[in-house]
Structure formats: C-alpha cells, structure tokens
Design brief:
By secondary structure, this protein is of the alpha/beta class. The chain has 5 helices and 12 strands. The protein has one domain: Metallo-dependent phosphatases (Purple Acid Phosphatase, chain A, domain 2), CATH 3.60.21. Strand 6, helix 5 and strand 7 form a beta-alpha-beta unit. The relative contact order is 0.17.
Length: 254
C-alpha cells in the first residue's frame, strides 16, 4: 500500500506553559508540507498536571488537531495515564487504546501499564497474542507504540541511562519474538527523547525524538517524522532545526 504518515511524540503539555502549543502551531506547515494522509501522536501528550487540568490540556490539543484538518490517531503514553484513566484518554482523543487496521496493515499498540505504576510499562497479553496470530499474514506492517519494544543501547540516554527498567516494556522480549522481518516494515516508538535507528532481529525500529525537549537544555522543540509507505519504505526524521535524516528499507527484507 501507499500512505504518508506524519508522526509526533512526547509533547509533555503542562498548565501555564504556552510554548509547546505555540511551537506545534508553528510546525504544522512543515508537517503539512509532506502531504501526510494522517498524523499519529505516539503518546505523552501530557506531562503531569498536578492541578487536575490534564483533561483540559488534552482536549485543547485535540481541538488544535481538529482545526488543522489532518486525520489523526493518538497512542497513549505513560504520562498520559498518570492522572487520567484509559477510558478518559480514549474518550478525549476519539480512538481506542490499541487496534489493528487489517486493510492497511497498521498497528497501534498500547504499552502503558498503570497497574505497574507511572514508570513501568508492558504490552498486554491480548496484544501480544494478536501479534502472534495476525502478523504472519501481513507483508509490510507498520507498528506505532509509545515505548520501544526492541533492544537499544541507552547507557548514554539523558533520561533512562541509569533507569533502563523505565525505558522498555517488561515483556518486550515476548513482543519482539512476535515480529517477523517478512511481515513487518517498521516499528516506530517515542518515549526515549532521542532519534535512533536500530535493526533488531531483522526488524527496523525507529525512535522518534520528542517534540518537546524544553526540559533538556541541549535539546530543541519541533521534532517529527514522516513515514512514506511503499517499496522501499521511507522514514524521514525532521529535527526542530529542519535537519533531515532519511532511512529507506526495501520490503520483504529477511
């Protein structure tokens, strides 16, 4: 199939801080210049609104997406469910926590695990089973998930280098074992606040850098990625400064 998907992740919206809203509005023309068929948000739209305004912030962001005219889909992140439950999140964004689009071979996974606390994650058993059952019949599936579900060296990561248990789902091995290079075109994740390209067990994994890195004095805001689904599959990572990094991969690569 052919489809162009724009991807943003980790906005970490907080009350009283207009910076990210303004930057997102500023970056929309750049995103739209790639003519995406839709936009996928890979979670952590929210940070933690200690004054209870999480739902208000989420609805404001959704309103901004609605005004853009772009079709969109939001995947939950661990920060999103820090103060809201999954039902409130999905109600606000207008989509389920996880789903599979059989016709387009697109997976939206939910790696949040509020029952494990705000800093731990896992992909639920029903999702792992669905991957095992339904992926083998696909040829170029693209998976979107907040947490990385592959091995990636994060020793130098500013946020998770000393806490790897907070970076990956506890059952990432079970997820990875369900992914076949003959069935999967690519997996895109957020959460790590860094751009990285990793081939793990023959499967391409791309970590999309955080849109909002204002908490990092060395970072920028406005990062996003663009997935062009075809053969080859192409993923362009666009930095906040406009720098592009392009990854291309022929489909059916074993």
């Amino acid at each position: 199939m052919t489809e162009t998907v724009a991807v943003v992740t980790d906005l970490h919206l907080e009350p009283g801080d207009e910076t990210v809203f303004e930057r997102f509005a500023d970056r929309l023309p750049a995103i739209e210049s790639y003519s995406p068929d839709r936009l996928v948000v890979l979670g952590d739209i929210l940070h933690y609104a200690t004054d209870g305004r999480d739902r208000e912030l989420l609805e404001r962001f959704v309103s901004l997406l609605d005004d853009s005219g772009l079709a969109y889909r939001c995947v939950p992140g661990n920060h999103d469910l820090g103060r809201l439950d999954l039902a409130a999140f999905t109600d606000a964004v207008g989509n389920d926590g996880w789903t599979v689009e059989e016709e387009t071979e697109t997976w939206f996974l939910d790696s949040t695990a509020p029952h494990l606390g705000e800093r731990r994650s896992e992909v639920s058993d029903d999702q792992v089973q669905a991957l095992a059952d339904r992926l083998p019949g696909m040829e170029a599936a693209v998976l979107f998930v907040h947490h990385p579900v592959h091995y990636h060296d994060i020793r130098d990561n500013r946020w998770f280098g000393e806490h790897p248990e907070e970076a990956f789902p506890g059952n990432k091995r079970a997820v990875a074992e369900s992914l076949s290079p003959g069935s999967v075109g690519a997996v895109l994740n957020g959460h790590l606040h860094e751009f990285a390209v990793t081939e793990y067990q023959g499967v391409l994994h791309v970590s999309v850098d955080a849109f909002d890195k204002t908490n990092n004095p060395d970072g920028t805001t406005g990062n996003f990625a663009v997935v062009e689904r075809g053969d080859p599959l192409s993923i362009t990572h666009v930095g906040g400064d406009g720098t592009e990094h392009v990854v291309r991969r022929p489909l059916g690569t074993e």
